[in-house]
Amino acid sequence: MQFVREHITNTLEVKQSKFIAHLVPYDKYLTTLTYLKNKHPKARHFVTAYRYLNEYEQIVEHSSDDGEPKGTSGKPSLMVLQGQELINSAVITVRYFGGTKLGTGGLVRAYSNSANLVAKEVIVEGEFDKSANLLIGNHTHNLDIALMESVIDEKLIWVAKKELGEIPVIKYMLTKTGMILVDRSDKRSVLKMLKEIKEKTQKGLKVVLFPEGTRNKINPKKMIKWKNGPKAAAEKLNLKVQPFVIVNLPFTFKNNPFRIEKQMIKVVFLPSFYPKDNPKWFEESKEKIQKVLDKEYSKMENEKLKVKSEKLKVKNGKF
After folding, report:
1. Quick check: is 306 in a domain?
2. How far is Cα 243 from Cα 299, in angstroms, rounded to an integer?
3. Most buried in the list 176, 232, 283, 285, measured by CB within 10 Å?
4. pLDDT over threshold 50, residue 70
């Protein structure tokens, strides 16, 4: 199951009709719906769908067509939430009628597509453990830090290589945010890093490390060799560790020409633990993260092949 952590919105226009989709955590559903109705008094429909877990850990689902032909809007929106395995989440689509009727099939496609626009942005799977001291994950892109900062609503202390602190603007940003700079080739610098991590975690702050040190620029789907710094820090300081996985972030950036494509980006939180409970935790964490990466990218590739096959069928007149 996956969760949405923040309000995501996007707009789809079909034959002058506007479909403004909003994906929100379920606990913000009613307040967001009220807000949108006040903000868009001239909108024709407010189509909704949601899924949440009740106190018995049962999935509760509901959808509303809000005046659209039965089954053309609410149900397709709910099916998007189901397909993305989103829980404790709601989608609200505000429709402005453009003067042209879209027909039953057109409405189903429009509401499905508008829901997909928001459901395929940043998806969070698993639970962030607020009691964890040290987070470790795969390094994929320069924006990994920005992504994790948007997902975790707490102050994070990042450990970065010393070279970044030699770039004037970057140095200012790093020092002002309390980041820890380390020269991995210098034993004294590593010892200083351990001391700073201890001080930060004793204050209740979360420290985040990329064990790879530098990312795999050739193939972000595969991790490179992990450095031993995170292992030493976790074991020496007896820190509670939570691994995380970043999926697909670097592939949203395209070249020739440079552009940013809207694609699904996923952050997966794996179960947390204390290193003392498993002597092989470091090696096994790397294996588990890579296993998640392999599974997620394989699933995405299969989805692309399925879409390609369906488009080919349409082209050949088989639909």
Report:
1. no
2. 21
3. 285
4. yes
